[in-house]
Amino acid sequence: MLTLSQAADELLGDYPLRRKASSVRYLKQRIAQLKAHMGGMMLIEITPDIIAEYQGIRLKEGALGSTINAEVMFALRLMGEIGDAVRLKLKRERRIRLPKNKNSGTALMQEEEAALLQAARVPVVIKGGKMDLKATRSPAIRPAIMLALNTTMRESEIRTLR
Questions:
Q1: What is the helix (H) or strand (E) element at residue 10, kind and residue range?
Q2: Residue 52: pLDDT above 70?
Q3: Which residue intervals of 19-140 are DSSP H helices?
Q4: Domain locations in the chain?
């Protein structure tokens, strides 16, 4: 019988051939958490109570409900038919899904936006003058902030732009 760690390694074997790099990265992050907590357990040992305990541990670590839900779904997927049975039991007991984070952020106030843009300014140093050490030295920061403010793109979306 396989351990969760072995099943995860099998899944990751050809996963990059069929998926985008960002999907592979996301799966590896979720699997790393699963391996850290349940990697040495045989798949048959992972019960609904183990999954519920895992959810509690991850919540105490500060992970978001949606992240934990994704990790649990990957664990159940790795478990195959055993995972299907565990999933059904958890679903019946209404323990399968944690609530998603309701506080997904708030819009910046005009003053906050102005302060952010002011902090992102690139200093202009006149010959013989002193540089404002509080100002940024990267000319790419202000355009990135403007892009984020005007498109509501997430940090990860901006970082992966080509």
A1: helix 4-18
A2: yes
A3: 21-38, 48-60, 65-78, 81-92, 110-119
A4: 4-92, 110-159
